Amino acid sequence: MDSIMIKLQTDKGEVLISSDVFTNITGAAATNCFGVKGMAFRSMTDGLVHLLRRESMAKGVHVTYHEDNSVSIELHIIIDHGVNITALCRSIISEVRYIVNKTTGVEVKSVDVFIDSMVIG
Q1: Which residue from 17, 54, 74, 116 could staple onto 62, CB 3.0 to 4.6 Å apart?
Q2: What does the pLDDT look like over 94-116, one tens digit per residue?
Q3: How many domains does the chain have?
Q4: pLDDT surpassing 80 at residue 28
């Protein structure tokens, strides 16, 4: 998979940020929210949703780069049973937007959260 780079111009020079950086930052921010079991990935072979390990959680994140150097983020997650889904999604959107902007300086246009599964216990 080719790594896409986003280019930022600062007063001290140019900064290139790879898509791997965005997916890792985003995945970590989302999974640190209370009620998130982890990132999800739907297998094309069996159609099942799988809980991703920390080292491969980037598969549950899709980043779209815009020409104005902003990004839109799509997250696929697995949540714990019994959490307030609306409150959880608001928390994830706020946290991801804040962490990505704070860490990279890139504006986040949108964060879409897809709950692919819920686990009990």
Answers
A1: 74
A2: 999 999 999 988 899 999 999 99
A3: 1
A4: yes
The CATH number that applies at residue 12 is: 3.30.70.1350
DSSP 82-118: TS-HHHHHHHHHHHHHHHHHHHH---EEEEEEEEEEE
Measured on CA atoms in the order 71, 72, 78, 83, is the torsion positive or negative? positive
CB atoms within 10 A of CB 108: 20
Q: Which amino acid does the sequence have at 112? A: D
Gap between the Cα atoms of 108 and 121, Å rounded: 33
8-state DSSP, 24: H
- Structural domain including 23 reads 5-119
Task: Please choose, from the candidates 85, 23, 96, the residue with its C-alpha nearest in 3D space to the C-alpha of residue 60.
Answer: 23
Whether residue 89 contacts residue 28, with contact meaning beta carbons closer than 8 Å, is answered with no
**pTM reported for the whole predicted model:** 0.82
Q: Which of 71, 78, 82 is nearest to 111 (CA)?
A: 71
